[in-house]
Amino acid sequence: MRRFLRKFSFLSVLLILGGFVWFTQRIAQPVKDAERKSLVRGWIHPADPLRPDGPFTPYIALHKGVPDPAGVPDFPLHDEQPDGGGTFELSADASDGQRFYLLARFETAKQAHYCRTVPLPRMRRTEDGAWLVAATAKPLKRLRIAVDKSVRCDP
After folding, report:
1. Residue 21: helix, strand or coil by DSSP?
2. Three-class DSSP category at 54
3. What is the pTM of this model?
4. Which of 18, 20, 92, 109 could disulfide-link 96, Cβ–Cβ 3.0 to 4.6 Å?
């Protein structure tokens, strides 16, 4: 009798655990579907003339519109501090438009900021949420952005 109860309790625990895992995966699917798909992916890195000024704090931001020579807007659509390898992945919503640009910035150990602005081609969003280059109907290739000492900027 004891052996039966041990087996029965073990099987019921496994059954409850399996049901919990199934339920968790099932309710997580709509959240995955609702996540924004990436507009742009890539890497930022310091160019050779900037390397002696390290260590660095990297920053990348996605802005809507075209770059304005008067300055960069205070609030980006999406921004992040890339990991140690400099990789980034930024997103936008369909309501943000079709024109975008990136602002890549490195802060040096001496509190100096160096930037590079990269305009992106006109983009369009598909019904399933994927971003494509409007002219080619293909996804944007991963970007590799090098920041040098040519443009000093304020944070």
Report:
1. helix
2. coil
3. 0.73
4. 92
**Signed CA dihedral, 54, 49, 101, 143: sign only:** negative
Q: Looking up tokens 């990269």, which residue turns up?
A: 118
Question: Do the Cβ atoms of 62 and 39 come closer than 8 Å?
Answer: yes
pLDDT (tens digit per residue) in 93-143: 989 999 999 999 999 888 899 999 999 999 999 988 899 999 999 999 999
The alpha helices in 61-143, defined as continuous H runs, are none
How are strands ordered across the β-sheet holding 38-46?
A: 87-91, 38-46, 143-147
- Asked if 1 contacts 58 with a C-beta cutoff of 8 angstroms, the reply is no
Answer for the pair 24, 31: CB distance below 8 angstroms, yes or no: no
**Residue that has been written with the tokens 């040098």 in this structure:** 148
3-44: pLDDT as tens digits: 655 666 666 776 777 777 777 777 665 544 445 578 999 999
Q: With b meaning 16 or more CB within 10 Å and e meaning fewer, what string describes 35-58?
A: eeebbbebbbbbeeebeebeebeb
What mean pLDDT do residues 72-82 have?
A: 89
Helix (H) or strand (E) holding 106: strand 100-107
